[in-house]
Design brief:
This protein is 43% helix and 13% strand. By secondary structure, the protein is α/β, with parallel strands linked by helices. The chain has two domains: 6-307, Rossmann fold, CATH 3.40.50; 317-370, no CATH class. A hairpin with a 5-residue loop joins strand 4 (81-82) and strand 5. Helix 1 packs across helix 12 (287-300).
């Protein structure tokens, strides 16, 4: 564990369908945040089909995330690429290598840990289409997930499938060590759309029945899983009934609230700037698109930095760190957990370890495993 008081803000841009404009939006979002004075890193995690470098006009060979995966680079910071925009850097995914689209679980955890410690105010993860586990896991590590779709039936239903997959993947990550609750999550996740499925509220009631002391963890899921919706290629002055249906579906079927934070205009002119999206943002032709992204940024309420004195970023804890701390927690006297629940804190270690360490320190615990000795 590395001691570090600074933690960046991570936005993940995803969606269920390819070709809906995720990458162009990611570049535009990063560009305008950088223009506003934030230090920004764009991380292309569409592993196997990366294209952010091309959108930025970077066509020459550069360092890529493949160098990190192959251990040619010690950290993601070592492969940062300068762009033509001040305050904006890139982690390229350009070089494809066998297995890169589906990295081993330990490598995925390593990537997520390094993302959290990158030297920037904001990191934007541009994710691949579909509901592959690695995509859902990268979406789940973000402080705020942004789902991009277009007002077409197939794209909207794929967006719903992506949101559902991300929610259940998050629940699995929390309750993976609790056999009965994990079995419930798995059985719910594989149900077809025609079958009755538990909403998050109903799932919470089941958790309360199975293990009441773990019930508060569901509140944390509700607070942390709050995806935002951006709809691309919307004709001027129009809203679409499919978008309203998607929001209603998420509420009725999943029990989550999705915030629609804005639309992007349908602009054919953008096709002339596919190798220079930052140029499109500056051009007269991009004025309407630029204005739309600025409005979306305002709805995101972007912070400059996050300071957590005395703690470490969540993803600075390796799997080995987590397991060691859990073993130590089992040895503590019951009085340490007075008014709370030991098992709930142990499960929390798998998805929010820094909060657990803060709690233990607040209870007067000093131990080398916590980094306090």
């Amino acid at each position: 564990m590395k001691s570090d008081k600074r933690s960046n803000t991570i936005f993940a841009v995803g969606g269920g369908k390819g070709g809906v404009g995720k990458s162009i939006f990611s570049v535009a979002l990063g560009t305008l945040l950088a223009d506003a004075g934030h230090s920004v890193i764009l991380a292309d995690l569409d592993l196997g089909a990366a294209n952010i470098h091309a959108c930025l006009g970077i066509l020459k060979k550069t360092a890529t995330i493949a160098d990190f995966i192959q251990k040619k680079a010690a950290s993601l910071e070592d492969i940062l690429i300068d762009t033509s925009r001040s305050n904006l850097k890139l982690i390229s995914g350009a070089d494809f290598m066998p297995g890169m689209a589906n990295p081993a679980y330990w490598m995925k955890l390593k990537i997520m840990r390094h993302i959290r410690s990158l030297p920037a105010d904001i990191v934007i993860l541009d994710l691949g289409a579909g509901v592959h586990f690695n995509t859902l896991d990268f979406f789940g590590v973000a402080d705020r997930g942004i789902v991009v779709t277009s007002p077409e039936p197939g794209a909207v239903m794929n967006a719903y499938g992506f949101i559902k997959g991300a929610l259940f993947r998050k629940l699995q990550s929390i309750f993976r060590k609790h056999s009965e609750i994990n079995s419930l999550v798995e059985s719910e996740s594989i149900k077809s759309e025609g079958e009755n499925r538990l909403t998050l509220e109903q799932f919470a009631e089941e958790v309360k029945r199975i293990d009441p002391e773990l019930y508060p963890l569901i509140n944390e899921v509700e607070q942390s899983f709050n995806p935002a919706l951006v709809v691309n290629r919307v004709p001027a002055g129009q809203s679409h009934i499919l978008v309203k249906n998607l929001i209603a579906l998420c509420t009725d079927k999943l029990g989550i609230k999705m915030e629609h934070i804005g639309n992007l205009p349908d602009m054919r002119e953008i096709s002339d700037y596919l190798l220079n999206i930052t140029g499109f943002i500056d051009a007269k032709a991009g004025k309407l698109y630029r204005s739309s992204v600025k409005s979306i940024i305002n709805r995101l309420n972007v912070p400059v930095t996050k300071e957590r004195p005395g703690t470490k970023p969540d993803t600075e804890f390796s799997d080995e760190d987590v397991e060691r701390i859990i073993k130590v927690m089992e040895q503590f006297d019951d009085s340490i957990f007075s008014g709370t629940n030991r098992e709930a804190w142990k499960l929390r270690m798998y998805f929010n370890p820094s909060d657990v360490v803060d709690f233990l320190i607040s209870r007067g615990i000093s131990h080398k495993t916590l980094g306090t000795e």
